[in-house]
Design a protein that fits this description.
alpha/beta
């Protein structure tokens, strides 16, 4: 029961007092909304000192509404949705995808540990390992994107295999169940960046991973208007990340959580359109003489196609291609600058089409990209693919000049 004064703010004679206390707990008859309400809160009120103390004791092991930094009901609703998508035990939300990656690494690694990281990870994750982790004597060794050399790079102190699958920029596939078996046999964790699959097209936890990370900025949100990251874990792997998040005060705005919840309702429908449009563009690119390779694991000729068929439920709007190596170094920039429907911008996963120039020599250290053509990354959006193909065709025409 609420305290009597709070249940009847009209009993106060002062307008100042009524303004502070009125309208906090509206009562009404009727049904309930389709969407969870947006709950903004820093301070949370309790009925008694005993209740506050009890909930503070319990909150380390339970998800309770006790303080804004520990989450609000809106945040909890999105955590539940992420768990459903990922098949996880629990999930936490972070202000960005990179923050989610950083917390996952810091939650499980300590000075003296060794992490094996795929050559195909998101470039800021590579930078985090090379700079920040190195300062704390957490060593990182990169292995081939397909995982072919990971076993020989294990050390006595290896505590984690960290992968992104399909990989960043050119979407290399690796055999995640095999990596999971190798990690388990050596007492290491398998952590996977699942932003490409977004819980619909790929589910690392079901394939043996202990931790799955997503940038909800991308397909979960779907509208290029919010930044967020997620971490979902198995039951056995949960406690370290929960404790680390609380220690660092990691939280997200309930407004942002509400936006991602709203965007996620259409995730499957949007992904189906992105996949359909992306494959149309990919097949068209394969027919162009200017193109050396098209990178998309859903294509039959892709090196990772068999693993994609086995482990994935579909594809998305990401397609990259390599220009023939004999083009001048400014060719890719001229092509990109000429495009009208493809916006030049970082990130992806929104409804709009995007294009970016990829520096593969900087983004990879195990694979040798010297001597290769320039790589252009496309995110194929929800526009009519015929219009997007026409835009690319006029872009390719600039290469002839």
């Amino acid at each position: 029961m609420s305290k009597p004064f709070l249940s009847n703010p009209g009993s106060a004679s002062s307008t100042l007092t009524r303004l502070v206390h009125a309208g906090k707990q509206p009562q009404y008859d009727g049904g309930r909304p389709v969407n969870p309400p947006l709950v903004r809160a820093s301070t949370v009120l309790f009925e008694s000192v005993a209740q506050q103390q009890e909930l503070r004791i319990r909150r380390d092991g339970e998800r309770l509404f006790t303080y804004g930094a520990r989450g609000t009901p809106t945040v909890f609703a999105l955590e539940d949705l992420v768990c459903e998508l990922e098949g996880g035990w629990r999930a936490r939300l972070f202000p960005t995808g990179l923050a989610a990656i950083a917390m996952a690494l810091l939650s499980y690694l300590k000075p003296g540990d060794h992490v094996l990281m795929s050559d195909s990870v998101y470039e800021p994750a590579r930078n985090l390992a090379d700079s920040f982790l190195a300062r704390y004597n957490i060593r990182c060794t990169f292995f081939a994107a397909d995982g072919s050399d990971v076993e020989e790079k294990f050390e006595a102190g290896t505590r984690m295999i960290y992968v992104e699958c399909p990989g960043s920029l050119v979407y290399e596939m690796c055999d995640l169940p095999r990596l999971a078996a190798l990690a388990k046999a050596r007492g290491a964790l398998l952590v996977a960046d699942n932003t490409w699959g977004s819980g619909c097209q790929y589910r690392p936890l079901a394939l043996g991973a202990d931790v799955s990370i997503m940038a909800a900025t991308k397909y979960l949100s779907g509208h290029s208007d919010v930044m967020m990251g997620t971490v979902a874990t198995t039951r056995q792997a949960w406690q370290p990340v929960a404790e680390c998040c609380d220690a660092f005060g990691m939280t997200v705005s309930p407004d942002d959580a509400w936006l991602v919840l709203r965007g996620a309702r259409s995730l499957a429908a949007r992904l189906a359109m992105h996949e359909n449009h992306g494959l149309q563009v990919a097949h068209w690119l394969q027919s162009r003489s200017e193109v050396g390779r098209v990178f998309c694991p859903a294509l039959a000729g892709d090196p990772g196609h068999a693993l994609w068929q086995r482990d994935c439920k579909g594809s998305n709007g990401l397609v990259s291609f390599e220009l023939q190596p004999d083009y001048r170094r400014d060719a890719a920039e001229r092509l990109i600058d000429s495009l009208v429907l493809f916006g030049i911008g970082a990130s992806w996963g929104g409804y709009e089409s995007l294009v970016a120039l990829a520096d593969m020599n900087r983004a990879r250290s195990v694979a040798d990209w010297s001597g290769c053509g320039q790589v252009i990354r496309l995110h194929v959006g929800l526009e009519d693919p015929a219009d997007l193909i026409a835009d690319l065709a006029q872009g390719f025409a600039t290469l002839a000049s």
